[in-house]
Design a protein that fits this description.
Blueprint lengths: L16 H9 L5 H5 L5 E4 L14 E14 L7 E8 L2 E8 L2 H6 L5 E11 L2 E5 L2 E3 L8 E4 L8 H14 L6 H9 L5 H8 L9 H29 L10 H8 L8 H14 L6 E6 L5 H14 L4 E4 L3 H15 L5 E4 L10 E4 L13 E5 L6 H4 L10 E6 L5 H5 L6 E5 L8 E6 L4 H15 L2 E5 L17 H11 L5 E4 L5 H12 L5 E4 L12 E6 L7 H8 L9 E6 L6 H12 L3 H12 L23 H17 L1
Parallel strand pairs: 4-6, 9-14, 9-15, 10-12, 10-13, 11-12, 13-14, 16-21, 17-19, 17-20, 18-19, 20-21
Antiparallel strand pairs: 1-8, 2-3, 2-5, 3-4, 5-6, 5-7
Helix pairs in contact: 6-7, 7-20, 9-10
Length: about 650
Amino acid sequence: MSLSVDSPIALLPGVGPAREAQLQELGIETIKDLLFDAPFRYETVEREVLIANLQIDTTVCIKATVASKFPIRTPRFKSMLKAKVTDSSGSLDVTWFNNPFILNTLKIGEEYYFTGKVGLFGKKPALTNPTIEKQIPEFGSLVPVYHESADINSRYLRKLIRFAYENVDLSDTSLMKTIYTKHGLISLKNALESLHQIKADCVDLKIAKERLAFDELFYLIKEVTEQKKAHQQSASIGKLTATNTDINAFFSLLPYAPTSSQRETIAAISLDLVQPHPMFRLVQGEVGSGKTTVAAFALFISARQGKKGILICPTNILARQHFDTLTTLFGKRISIGLYTGKEKETDADILVGTHALFALKGIHPSVVIIDEEHRFGVKQRETFFKLKKKPHFLSMTATPIPRTVALTALSDRDVSYIVSHKDNSNIKTWVTPNSKRAGAYEWIKKTLQTSGHQALIVCPFIEESLIETLSTVKSAKKEYESLQKIFSTFKLDLLHGKLKPEAKEKMFTKMMTGKTDILVTTPVVEVGVDIPKASIIVIEGAERYGLAQLHQLRGRVGRRGQEAFCLLFTSESANERTSSRLEFFAKSYDGNALAEYDLKHRGSGELTGIAQHGFDALKFASWSDLKLIEICKKEVEAIANLK
């Protein structure tokens, strides 16, 4: 059987059902996944040495027996394993951080090859995070080290990759060869040869990654370009008329004059609705910028012409908020129904609900709007795309979108940006060291007592776990118990994602009616929650969040323009780099600037929502490489014009 890069990994020799499942846990499902699995480091090992002959700052391989092992809980790392290994010349301490697989893999009394760089621990030689293998490793060249699991190690992956490299056709098409030659790029075969160090005389790794980065962006842009073309050629459930009369009728319902960017977005939606193909638009805007207003316009047009529209929200609370907003806006002119896990109203012009709407049978909406689309899975969103006649589709997000992402991963849709009339500058943001925690708590007490306002305390974890026991990163449950003692004269509640929807609604009702002074919560509070009297937010482990998410959390307070405060507490593991990020955040209230900063300093893996749109974090290219993005876009357009 001939193999291609798209062949399932199970077609490779020795990959049975068990191995296939183990590889899938590492994200390897096809031969392409395997060949493009980039090593996270390379080791150069010249020879095997005895423990007694180790020299500091050299990469070595020792053959030793595990004498003891014991896991350690530490405030700085997620997990830590220490082991003592011995050979005929002596003993050595070996330590692994954040590698839970090693605990079960390493057997006391067993002999292994340990490969890594020699460092000092307590003035003695030691190995930190070495690779372990039962067979002698390859010596004399760069050896790639891959992300491993308890069942799959780097040696096995190297063997599998070599077989795939030698038996899969990796030649470039004549058309692509011309493009690669034009831009001075090497062949795919040579690039993969260098990436995995298959030959001793392969090309420079930097040159190889330039070719792989080009491919990554080129085929991403090509895919979304084809998706956009297919969408434009598909049939909509029906044209909707959106005249100036319709627009003015909608504006007359608003309790305020729409902003210029709202007007521009509504005009763009009007043009979308009259096209023969369905609308496919993303509306991005800060919290409170008026995204719901433009969504309401599309629903208004649909209902005005006797067709059904639906608005899908990620939480029951947000669905209820949108339901109340639309009911107030439209009054008796348009009927609004609420459809969640509990409410099941379907006989209405507009249905507002949660993910339950994806499974609702027998309705053929003219307009589908999804709030915070990235909170849903790709397959859920595509529920409506699979229909023979597709509805007009509009998604909304408060998550800032870097320009280069809009040009690539999201270029299959039209994007509208709504400028916020609220700049959040009424929220003072402070990076607060742990040494000032007690003083901060006293300040919060006094501020709440004098203002009558409310506070949110956000924690990253719901409960302490055996793996992630970080004593300085507070779990919501543990912190709640502690804070009840500190704020003993205040009313506290605990909110997290594992609560049932009814319990969450009850919690928010208490907060909205002033029966709760302090809400201890996980980031579930981030999504669209509007608590008018919330004026203080404390974010624990702030360095663990992307700046865009911190910006969303900060937007939970000061919603009515009142003076508000955001306190960022960091864990002990926070370093100078993370501190500078948070200082930048404290001074900036521009969501797009914050997203661009994170893109530049943290990388593509931190972009909220990209994976949920169906795209993984880039492995070789960078979302910030505008020059390469523009080159790839031009080449994709050139190929499209040839057809």
